[in-house]
Amino acid sequence: MKILGKEILVGGKKIRVDEAIVQQLVRKAAKGNLRAAEMVIDRVDGKVPETVEISVPSMPPEEIVWTEQELADHEKYFKRNDHGQHQ
Q1: Are strands 13-16 and 7-10 parallel, antiparallel or unpaired?
Q2: Cβ(39)–Cβ(25) below 8 Å
Q3: Is the residue at 77 inside a domain?
Q4: Residue 30 lies in a domain
Q5: How far is CA 65 from the centre of its chain?
Q6: pTM of the entire structure?
Q7: Engineered SS bond to 29: which of 2, 37, 53, 62, CB 3.0-4.6 Å?
């Protein structure tokens, strides 16, 4: 911070080091340097986040409706496959 605040001579004019850096960066961006342009835009508009968080509204679980036959088949299946404990 100390160095950035010091004054230097640029083109016969005294300016601070941080101002000289910004001028050079803007000049490079204006000449088409994409990295410099990205840095300038990030400082002016705010850096674009690398990831975007989205929230998905929670939906109630789908209700399963069994027919009487499906329920009977389901109960038979689990009674048969109850690790040999019931038959």
Answers
A1: antiparallel
A2: yes
A3: no
A4: yes
A5: 40
A6: 0.49
A7: 37
Q: Is residue 28 part of a domain?
A: yes
Q: Is residue 38 part of a domain?
A: yes
Which domain, by its residues, includes 11? 7-45
Tokens at 53, concatenated? 């968080």
What CA–CA distance (Å, rounded) separates 25 from 39?
Answer: 8
Q: Provide the number of structural domains found in the chain.
A: 1
3-state SS string over the chain? CCCCCCEEEECCEEEEHHHHHHHHHHHHHHCCCHHHHHHHHHHHHCCCCCCCCCCCCCCCCCCCCCCHHHHHHHHHHHHHCCCCCCC
Round to whole Å and give the CA distance between 37 and 34: 5
- Amino acid identity of 19? E
Q: What are phi and psi of 16, to 5 degrees?
A: -75, 155
